[in-house]
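Batch manifest line 457
LIGAND: zinc ion
JOB: complex structure
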Amino acid sequence: MAGVNIADEISALCYDHYRTKLPKQGQPDTSKEWTLMAAVIQVESTEGKTDIRKVVAMGTGTKCIGQSKLRKTGDVLQDSHAEIIAKRSFQRYLLHQLSIALSGSQDCVLVPGNDTNKWMLKPGVSFVFFISHTPCGDASIIPMLCLEDHLCPTSTAASEVMPLLCGPNPSNKRKQAACAHNSNNKKMKLDGSNQETEPEEKKESAAFIPEPIDVFRTGAKCAPGEAQDRHNPGVDYHTVGVLRVKPGRGDRTISMSCSDKMARWNVLGCQGALLMHFLQHPIYLSSVVLGKCPFSLQSMERALYSRCKNVSGLPKGFQVHTPQILQSHLQFPHGRDALRKADSARKLVPCGAAISWCAVPHQPLDVTANGYKQGTTKKAIGMPQSRSHICKVELFHAFLHLLENLSQEQIPESLRELKTYYEYKEAALSYQEAWRQLREQVFTSWIRTPRDYLNFS
Ligand SMILES: [Zn+2]
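JOB STATUS: finished
ARTIFACT:
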């Protein structure tokens, strides 16, 4: 399809879905808030025909709760970053698809696999992951170069980067000076226009060679046990390629960054352990598409799969999957950069709500804040109505409900005589073996949810 930019088409499809299918309640109040958005797009390719693409899951959100707010009952959403909400919503979608398949209907994306009671994706079906911004953690550590320079691997024009560079940072002037330099040795202002350099800048940029002069930073801290950030000014601020933990407000989190979680999906699939009981192969993402934002293909590749590329001994069907990474020219209108561009004086904070949507017939939406349905009072915490459809216990119960409706012959052997969520997850042997290999070989500092938070039933 010459002349058609697939990344732009995917992002336009997602922005349209966001605008028309998600409730205003849960979206940011754009006079003061921004959010992040992620989605899963199902693609059906038939030879000789145009691909059919549809959004099957979407998530928004920017927050993650601290360790002290976790619950042993699995009824709180721990991590509400958009990517994670979208992925959990996608699992809910897949669970629904599996229930259709098990009912004998062919109107779904799963077809019988080679092994008894195992299913696989219908030939020609694949899934694309869209994110409005680079995932937090390693993928967001992006070298800042002379951004109008063609040698520059980042795809963002200097004009969009400017607001980020002009924050209250003591080294700001140095960054501007270096960034105002391009390979022709002509001075360029951040708005792209050429001009004579101020004497002070001249002095500072005299020794400059066209190499990264700084990095975009991530709020995610290196996990304990990893090489730590050096925090030196400029390019040496962060250590790259290491596991990171999401920041929390005062209360530390035990959630790994979205870059790390996505890297894990590229080995274990996005379906999770429970669904793996019914699947012949893990479900990998064919591509990852980003909205317009500061971006480096190199950082994305490093974060999402290069650091796992030597993992060996994976069980049959598992691999280090390398999705295609693409960036769109279209910016998410409710993201921080877009809103700042519209009004640079506006004070913006991340939106506290998260929206989950997926293509299921009953209650496809839920809006949460602090890990519970929006509007949940302290007293109502623990009641069924306070739970998100995609929290651990709800997804688990949806899975158990599916099992209840099956005949004994339809239930995979691996699922007999189990009780707790932990047991159901552990019994997915190939998945757990792949996870063990990944953890032992690369992600040795991964912080695992303590077992007593998984013993609910
Ligand atoms: Zn994140």
